[in-house]
């Protein structure tokens, strides 16, 4: 409250009441401290330790011997590593490209067709069914799929036999020509729920008047999907592609449970290659070099993806202004 007092022809203003104490600007940093400490302990310190081990020749016991860049020079000439990296590119297709494309169509269909004609509850139930593989532990899902794809008495081969297609029966996980594609199919099933949920969430913020105006102009479902849905949920598409690509590059559990990198290394990926080199071959320094290179690749990809996303969002904001 302000009080005005006249003193000798002068007007003096006095402020009464309690003054609110200022909150220190550094107080908000205290809330970040637990997360920062956890990040240092769980991510930064192990990565630095692993990087240090990658410059040594070590069998896991005794004293490590400094070898400099010897492990990295060997890695550049290792055909098995490059083969595993090529397999991880197939995993990117199975876990990022295909689920993103299929998830977009399914999300639009559930939101635009099922939700309007059968109710939002039906769409929510179907969404939960698609997302269920994401909730299942990968070990459980892998064991179930190993039963389904078993060469003898497997559900898939038995189904093919029941419908008279015995000629299509295969050793899905044991044949070098089919093993990688079988694992890719399993990963599509596992991964498709994540893009679907993200895209359906993004569709909630799209202005319904855009769809109504396009429908009045005679635009069909596909034209509305292409010209309205895709541009409006572009940020979600960037997030899903980046997230799923990183998950594909570091995939481990499915390969370990289904094939253990076989047959003949046809399903080997860098993360599993590093695991076997580290623990089974006890070439700890070399295994650490593999995981370090994979981490650097993932980090660089994440930074490039975030940069492209920021640039696209800035360009979109510029067009709006």
TrEMBL record:
Pfam hit, one: BPD_transp_1
Domain named ABC transmembrane type-1: residues: 85-305
Record's bilayer topology term: Multi-pass membrane protein
GO biological process: transmembrane transport
CDD domains, sorted: TM_PBP2
Listed PROSITE patterns: ABC_TM1 (PS50928)
SUPFAM superfamilies referenced in this protein's UniProt entry, alphabetically: MetI-like (SSF161098)
Predominant localisation class: membrane
Subcellular location: Cell membrane
InterPro entries given in the database record: ABC_transporter_permease, MetI-like, MetI-like_sf
Region feature (Disordered): 1-23
Comp. bias intervals (Basic and acidic residues): 7-16
Transmembrane domains' residue ranges: 28-49, 89-113, 125-148, 178-199, 237-258, 284-306
GO cellular component, one term: plasma membrane
UniProt KW keywords: Cell membrane, Membrane, Transmembrane, Transmembrane helix, Transport
Family note: Belongs to the binding-protein-dependent transport system permease family.
PANTHER family reported in the protein's UniProt record: ABC TRANSPORTER PERMEASE PROTEIN, DIACETYLCHITOBIOSE UPTAKE SYSTEM PERMEASE PROTEIN NGCF
Name listed for the protein in its UniProt record: Sugar ABC transporter permease
Organism: Streptomyces scabichelini
């Amino acid at each position: 409250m302000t009080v005005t007092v006249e003193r000798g022809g002068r007007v003096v203003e006095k402020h009464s009441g309690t003054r609110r104490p200022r909150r220190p600007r550094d107080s908000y940093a205290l809330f970040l401290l637990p997360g920062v400490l956890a990040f240092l302990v769980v991510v930064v310190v192990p990565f630095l330790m692993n990087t240090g081990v990658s410059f040594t020749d070590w069998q896991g016991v005794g004293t490590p011997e400094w070898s400099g860049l010897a492990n990295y020079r060997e890695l550049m000439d290792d055909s098995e590593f490059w083969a595993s990296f090529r397999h991880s590119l197939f995993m990117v297709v199975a876990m990022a490209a295909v689920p993103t494309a299929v998830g977009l169509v399914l999300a639009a269909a559930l939101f635009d067709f099922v939700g309007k004609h059968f109710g939002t509850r039906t769409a929510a139930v179907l969404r939960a069914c698609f997302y269920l593989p994401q909730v299942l532990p990968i070990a459980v899902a892998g064991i179930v799929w190993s039963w389904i794809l078993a060469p003898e008495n497997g559900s898939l081969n038995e189904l093919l036999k029941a419908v008279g297609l015995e000629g299509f029966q295969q050793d899905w996980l044991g044949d070098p020509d089919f093993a990688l594609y079988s694992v890719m199919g399993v990963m599509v099933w596992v991964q498709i729920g994540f893009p679907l949920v993200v895209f359906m969430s993004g569709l909630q913020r799209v202005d319904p008047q855009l769809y109504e105006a396009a429908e009045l102009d005679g635009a069909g479902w596909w034209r509305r999907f292409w010209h309205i849905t895709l541009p409006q949920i572009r940020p979600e598409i960037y997030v899903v592609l980046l997230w799923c690509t990183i998950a594909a590059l570091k995939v481990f559990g499915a390969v370990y449970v289904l094939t253990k990198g076989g047959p003949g290394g046809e399903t080997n990926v860098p993360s599993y290659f590093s695991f076997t080199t580290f623990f089974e071959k006890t070439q700890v320094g070399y295994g650490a070099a593999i995981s370090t290179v994979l981490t650097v690749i993932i980090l660089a990809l994440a930074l490039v993806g975030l940069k492209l996303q920021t640039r696209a969002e800035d360009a979109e904001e510029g067009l709006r202004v």
